[in-house]
Amino acid sequence: MTANLLSVRDLKVSYRVGNGHIDAVDGASFDVPRGSIVGLVGESGCGKTTVARALTRVIADNARITGGQILFDGKDIAAIPERQMNALRWRDIAFIPQSAMNSLDPVYTVEYQLNEVLRRRGGLSAREARMRCESLFEMVGIEKGRLRDYPHQFSGGMRQRVAIALALALNPKLVIADEPVTALDVIVQRQILDQLRELQTMLGISVILVTHDISVVAYICDRTVVMYAGRVAEAGPMAGVLTRPAHPYTMGLRNAFPDLAGAASGTLTPIDGAPPNLAEPPPGCRFAPRCPFSIEVCSTESPPLAEIVPDHRVACHRASEAPVLREIAARTETWLAHA
Amino acid sequence: MHDLALQKPGLVGRMFRSLKLPLSDPFAVFGLAVYATFLLTAIFADAIAPYDPTEILYTPEYELASDLRPGEQGFILGTTSLGRDIFSQIVYGTRSALIIGITAAFMVALIGSVVGLVSGYFGGWVDAVLMRLADIAFGIPFLPFVIVLAAFLEPSIWNVVLAMALVLWRDTGRVIRSQVLTLRSRGYVDAARVCGSSDLKIILRHIAPNILPLSFLYGSIAIGWAILTEASISFLGFGDPQSISWGYMLQDAFASQALAKQAYYWFVPPGICIILVVSAGFFITRGYENLLFPKLGR
Amino acid sequence: MAGTRMRSAVTYSNEPLVSLRSAELHYRVGGALSALRGRSSVVKAVDGVSFDIHRGESVGLLGESGCGKSSIGRLLMKLEDATGGEIVFAGEPISGLRGAALKCYRAKAQLIFQNPFDAVNPRFTIRATLAEPLENAGIPAGEREARIIAALELVRLPQPAQFLDRYPHQLSGGQLQRVVMARALILQPDFVVADEPVSMLDVSVRAGVLNVFRDVRDRLGLTAIYISHDLALVRYVCERTIVMYLGRIMEDGPTEDIVHEPLHPYAKALVAAVPVPHPDQSHDPLPIGRGAPDPRNPPSGCVFRDRCPRAFDRCASEVPQLRQIGTRKVACHLF
């Protein structure tokens, strides 16, 4: 048994668009250790959702995995036939799609929908399924009396709990949740995250949490993978990445984020510009056009993802200077001068 | 279309573009081609038709040119029992079919759009009144209504247009109203209100352009309906004897027992024309559906 | 930037610019049929809300979805008419505004929308979008272009001329939100309501839009309401915060006081729930019951009592009134 439940190596996913193609994910590598929550974080269009979907191989019709490996329990699931992959889905790898709470079927009771999964995919008997439904509801903190309710009778947060129960129905080893708390209010968001953490510890599963919100990562994740424009910018233990970021993009994100724990006089600093168009990505480092620290080599050569301290990997040509850059990056003028 | 999009189009160009003709769908292109052909035929009917369609014709031997087969004596599609030229009747029939079809479609699209816009935008009691009227219109059986109308009024091809205008706005109105309800909740409509635009300006500028393709869709359905209805009415004998239409031709053929005489050349051509025009309308509709509701994925 | 924080020292004129006096917005849900069956209910989106905003003040309206914060914004913009109470702008009730007076009000009070992609007509160029308010205000065609450029410069859109003939889909979210702000500011309003203006934007560009908002507000001396569910953002732009729950005000006071020592039990939970981007943070369970506010069926007495950890008998029987407690006002029987 390997230490990592999942290892993604140089994953490439490409979309066919018109006559051309867009490499939405262009060589992503990261690990998911057993029993950990990994936050996949980045802005819209950075490829985080595509990565999450590619892991279950449920991707859009015009998308294709064009390279790399997805090692799940030591087996490359990018290469296995679709039938074997299908057997893994839900039983071993469960996926909670974005706004899963709105994808429950309104004409069936929640119990019926849970049963469907348990009996069709899990092969449980009617009696076993009923008991499992009750224990699942208990697990996600909903009274079992509400099993017979229809989705519209639940609030948004409750429906998200149902979606989590659905994902956990067949005891998966890995749960991939795409923006599970994005549409929810802060209080409900917090309660759902607490629930997710509790279940993860109790069941010893691994979770990949796709989010755009670094504070969600800070609250719940053990590790984080920061993506930018289809590539991994930085990956490592959550505390390390957030407190000692080594990639200028991560440094910039921290400056741009309002912090209730900080002083009132703090000024937020945006990262100027916008992510590149992936149809024509810039040569070299994709962050270089927005980076205040870019040097000549940045616009010609794309930096490899290299380990700077044990377990903390960064794709930046100036990663060795990280401590100095961090200090400069903390000043607002750094980012303004660049603009 | 693409070239059009590149240039800065004038008013006509903009209107043409906002119709969003479904030129990428082969069926729709076929439909548009059929319409174009019939339209040209209708416009140049006087030049194309060799005879007056109501004129009773004689052979050079001064015999009634009745029941001639196609090609005989130079009559392309033969003649009727009363000695009228079938080809000329078809050509002139195109004219009345299109006049009826297009005016009816225009009325249905216009009235329906106005009702839908007003009802959806203003809501409240205006909406309630208009939609109850639509409910009443939905309760009227269409063909009997036209017959009754034709009985009250002088027989005229305009009866069909009037009946359609009175009844068939209901479908367009309902659908456009629901579309307007969606558009109305868009942020840019609120934005226009906040920055002081009047209701009329908002309707004309921000809402109407978005429902134009939809009213055109319903208009093209209505063309087929109108032609079919006129044909049915004429066939049932409530038509206008003064104007030649395809339905009138069918009725004439039926009354003269063309089938027994095996005069297929008499009733098949108008039948084909009706089928062509109506199905062309529906092909265009289909093209619009693909354009308006791409998720149907056909 | 330094000037921003000094604003709290500015003394406001005594006359409030905007006043809500027991404003109500009630919706009847369920049609005539359910009314016959006795099933129709009234949703109180805004239920007896009163506050004053002085000239030059920035106030954050904070709360979860369905608390009525956006409804207040719509009431203030006259996109919705209050079903009760009164809204007064510069000494005049806005409920009676019609025709020319309404047009005049529209030029003075403006709204910045939440979703920039929805707030501009996708068929219109940026020029046409920004020209609309100018047309309505009767600005002659010759002057419009210059005003448009000036407004785009105000929101710090670089080289504004290049954007004029573009369509909204050709702009990024951050750029488009600046256009939306420019449209709101182009008639030089006195009062601006910003309804979650950055919630649809990516984190890296949010700060830019917020900074522009803060900057422009200070430069033009605007009175502003900032609607948000995120206390961290409200704190960044507003010196005063109003916390709402199910259509009512729970707490109203200086933002810093609420951030550091919220009084109302709901405000406490809300402050504790705000996510912070630090690894070391409290993971204690929130001091609030599970479940969600149900606007169709709010509890009697205090609307928060069913989720309140400190509720007692009186909370069920009596609606707590908003009362002055030190620097702020709180609606809770505990105080």
Automatic annotation (TrEMBL), chain A:
Transmembrane segments: none
Keyword NADP annotated: no
Subcellular location: Cell inner membrane
Organism superkingdom: Bacteria
Alphabetical UniProt keywords: ATP-binding, Cell membrane, Membrane, Nucleotide-binding, Transport
Location of the ABC transporter domain: 8-254
Gene Ontology CC annotations of this record: plasma membrane
One annotated GO molecular function: ATP binding
Family: Belongs to the ABC transporter superfamily.
Keyword Calcium found: no
Organism in which the protein naturally occurs: Mesorhizobium zhangyense
CDD domains hit by this protein: ABC_NikE_OppD_transporters
Protein name: ABC transporter ATP-binding protein
An example Gene Ontology biological process: peptide transport
Membrane topology: Peripheral membrane protein
InterPro entries: AAA+_ATPase, ABC_Ni/Peptide_Import, ABC_transporter-like_ATP-bd, ABC_transporter-like_CS, Oligopep_ABC_C, P-loop_NTPase
TrEMBL record, chain B:
Subcellular location: Cell membrane
Keyword field contains Aminoacyl-tRNA synthetase: no
Lineage of the species this protein comes from: Bacteria, Pseudomonadati, Pseudomonadota, Alphaproteobacteria, Hyphomicrobiales
Signal peptide: none
Domain ABC transmembrane type-1 per the UniProt entry, residue ranges: 94-285
Membrane topology: Multi-pass membrane protein
CDD domains for the chain: TM_PBP2
UniProt superkingdom: Bacteria
Pfam family, one: BPD_transp_1
Record's protein name: ABC transporter permease
TM ranges: 27-49, 97-122, 142-169, 207-228, 263-285
Protein family: Belongs to the binding-protein-dependent transport system permease family.
UniProt GO BP: peptide transport; protein transport; transmembrane transport
Keywords of the record: Cell membrane, Membrane, Peptide transport, Protein transport, Transmembrane, Transmembrane helix, Transport
